[in-house]
Amino acid sequence: MGILIGLERVSQEWPGKRVLVDQTIGINEGNRIGIVGRNGDGKSTLLELIAHTLEPDDGTITYRNNITVGMIGQQDHLCDDDTVCQAVVGDTPEYVWASDPTVRSIIEELLVDIDWQGLVGELSGGQRRRADLARVLVGNWDVLLMDEPTNHLDLHAIRWLAEHLKRRWQPGQGALLLVTHDRWFLDEVCEHMWEVHDGVIEPFEGGFSAYIQQRVERQRVAAVMEERRQNMLRKELNWLAHGAKARTSKPKFRIDAAMELIANDPPLRNPVELKRMAVGRLGKQVIEMHGVSAGYGDNEVVRDIEWLIGPGDRYGILGENGAGKTTLLKVMTGALAPLRGQVKIGASVKFGMLSQQLEGLAEHDGWRVSELLGTYKRYLMVEGKPQSPEQLLERLGFERREFPTFIKDLSGGQRRRLAILCVLMEEPNVLVLDEPGNDLDTDMLAVLEDLLDTWPGTLLIVSHDRYLMERVTDDQYALIDGRVRHVPGGVDEYLDLLDAMPKSKVQVEGKGKPSTSSSLEQPASPSDAAATDAPKLTNAERRTLKKRFDAVSRKLEKLSSRPQELRDELLTLDATDYQALLDKQAEIAAAEQELEDLETEWLELSERLGE
Length: 611
Prior knowledge:
This protein is an alpha/beta fold. Among the domains are: 3-207, P-loop containing nucleotide triphosphate hydrolases (Rossmann fold, 3-Layer(aba) Sandwich); 213-263, no CATH class; 526-609. 41% of the residues lie in helices and 20% in strands. The strands form 5 sheets. It has a 6-stranded mixed β-sheet with strand order 5-6-7-3-8-9, with helices on both faces. Strands 14-17-18-12-19-20 form a 6-stranded mixed β-sheet, with helices on both faces. A 3-stranded antiparallel β-sheet has the order 2-1-4, with helices on one face.
């Protein structure tokens, strides 16, 4: 396995901050590297240095002879006067790219709704992003650098991109460096992690989950060393104060580490207690929708919706781009009147809204952060303790020195964190979040998740970050063909539903845009379909199915604790033994997959037996 790119003693400094200090590291053939770190710590800068679009202040970055490097940054460099065809495939003859199945699949997935001969300057921001991503993916690169590639992609496109990147090169060939806040994507695609922090690049083996495990273990070891140091200092100070009689046996101590909490795996939140508190704040009625259809003019975006949302419900809303999720939120909150049907909102409901565009902050751009904080109550109860707006903002990653900053001068991630705080400080009892994870790094996403875990109220969230979605909500609903349906299996079930539907087709024609056709008609629910299509079982068939059902039930009960047992074993391994960690992680994944397969089979058998 040869080295493709080498960084030797590289340093880079921006005004007021050194992001890299004397770093030496290499990128080898076959590497699939995820880059993580806090906002502003230098992840994007590192990619730009590797791509040679930025020269380092010190050190050298060396390419192996004749390698090609492709990059997609957070900002595109497409020409507004080019057609989409020119921007994506350039001067490549049509018969060449049109005959390549890989290129056709990229166009089909990313550009199905875009005029192939339309001008780039006429595209929306999300369409430009997808066109730029397609431009990079159709190229033949030895090394691919990607900065937030999942931005503006829906869940189906994100899964497609993960599969594309996993099979793009043969094992041991090519290299991928990826910056993203999407933790599921990191786990799915990457086999190594680089953490950029405090001017250094710290490598970890394995995907995002293995990286978190190793980081926690390093923190535990550091805590042990610090406690030993503190005990030694106390012992020496005691000796100095009281003389030789204080030189007794070595003091006994141990670490009451957070690892015990992880080993015991307590629930992330107490749903019964949160619902009890929510009922106290909300009453029994929150949102009721009966026969609701809504849209704009003659265009119905959502239709015939029957949905009851109660106090303490935590629901995630899934759907492709353009499916109508934002329209649905507007109808549910009373911001948009339905075309038909009735929406009932409880008298005690107080909505807290976070939009993608953060309109609430725009009117305060000329204010300083501290001035905005001064408009809210001095204290808010969080996790049973009073906390000031300043303390909460520090918890969300701000530093005290940043409080005098004008809101207009904040970065995208800082603005979103401030907007989230403002919504929480208004003390709503129904929280509606539209893509709250945009612009947040992985550490800030974890802080946001912790805040939402203890929030007592009804939560409605729209997000393409499946990790965040499944982490903070208890149930997911999919908006498909204008209708809402429950997906008990979460994001995986939703994606399977999309795959089972007639797939949009792209025929690349001579001169014109790729033509599309799609149909998303589905039965209202799996049980309805089963009731109409499933033939009646004979007694012999029922006995066979019942026998299998009982066997699967017994096996489920036997294996239900196996993943947790393996996680406990993982905590006992040496944190420096990367291969053992990876092997154990593979065992955990296999056990979880076996359990998931059994649960799926159990549900299918249960439906067929009518149990």
